[in-house]
Amino acid sequence: MTMTASTLLFRLLLALVVLAPVPFAAQRPWAWSLMGVTIGLLLLLWGALVLTGRARAAMPMSRLWFPAVPFLLVLCWAVLQTTGLVPAGWQHPLWGEAARALNAMNGSMVGSISLDPSMTVTAVLRLATYGGVFWLAVQLGRERARAREALVTLATAGIAYAVYGLAVRFGGWEYILWYPKWAYHGDVTATFVNRNAYGAYAGIGLLCCVALFVHGLRPTGTGDRRAFDLAEALLVRALPYLAGGLVIGTALLLSHSRGAFLATGVSLLVLIVALVKGRILRPGAAFPAVVALLVVGLSSVIISGDGTVDRLWRMNIDQEGRPDLMRQTLVAIGDAPWTGYGLGAFLPAFRLYRDSTLADTVVYDFAHNVHLELAMDLGLPGALVFYAAIIAVAAVCAAGLVRRRRDQIHPAVALAAMTLLGLHGLVDFSAQMPAIGATLALLLGIGYAQSWNTAEHGRSADW
Fold first, then answer.
1. pTM, rounded to two decimals
2. How many CB atoms lie within 10 A of CB 379?
3. O-antigen ligase-related domain location, by residue (predicted)?
4. What is the residue extent of each domain of the chain?
5. Which pLDDT score, from 0 to 100, does residue 457 have?
6. Alpha carbon distance 43, 131 (integer Å)
7. Helix or strand or coil: residue 180?
């Protein structure tokens, strides 16, 4: 690939996304802030390239308005939640109580919908960062060579983090980087703190490896060369990704994350269906592919999955308090269904609702259900608008499987990754880790960009 300014920009974006898991999944304030600032700079550089004629927008706004408009509306609503520009009846009653307690009724204290405007501003910046990753991936990932590079890079990163996690696990080192582990001892977490978050990230890497493995099996020759090309495809283009998938699968099992294990299994089936719909995998080969995945998966479970299977066998989420946590979250949603409590303000809002059914020693800064938490934060209308943006991306990717005649692997992986994190989000908060959110945004952007026929708006001109 020729190294143009746009290609360099794209590779900087890739480097940022694949390195994001290193500092504890970029969950620390300095890490996600650095990510946000860097994405902002990359957006400015891309804009400068477009304005100076060194690149042009590969995807016109006419193809982007249906996910962009609801996404921007959500950002605007979240910002509005931090201000006093809403009717007094929309503001949380605690602001009035605080004003009376502080004798601040002279107007020096301004109420808002959000219980903690600073936390909401933080959440807005993080969500805007993911939007920036998506935008750059759409505009720069329109070139098929770059899209392929992104998928291979994410697969390679998934393998690298899995190798690191397994090395730490089998080496007997209870460390994350150079810090002693303070949680999840005996579980593979790689550079993540939470085993469930790492399990979800490993699942995304596994999806990339399986997609590249299946895609690599397709012979390119005909006639006498077909058998030779098939052997070359298997040994050179496909087997490395199968081996990498086995490494990632082993790390996923040794993370002992039940939710990530089950969500990855379902998303792999979604991937197979998408690859069939995209004509990458022939219908007649789909059943053998599923059988092969099951055989390989069961072999990995037998070898490395004792802990995960044991946790699945004696699954009892009641012991973890999640049903009570979700029940109280639903109560909170019912008290403010239209306005919410402020994007990212779950922690202070939930303090008002926790009761004796939840452990006193646990600080619930997440709802362990991203969908309920989003409804509680934004209100039901705001959450629905956000999901409208996600559904718009999914619809375009699904259509791309049918209308494209090549490169359908990218929308297929995007749909599978969306399924994985959506299902895992029913029981955990992996999608709220910045490293995972950025990775999903990149995959969705690439999948979206590669879901349109080239002839519909021409090739991007980068020079």
1. 0.90
2. 24
3. 246-387
4. 5-317+364-453
5. 47
6. 11
7. strand
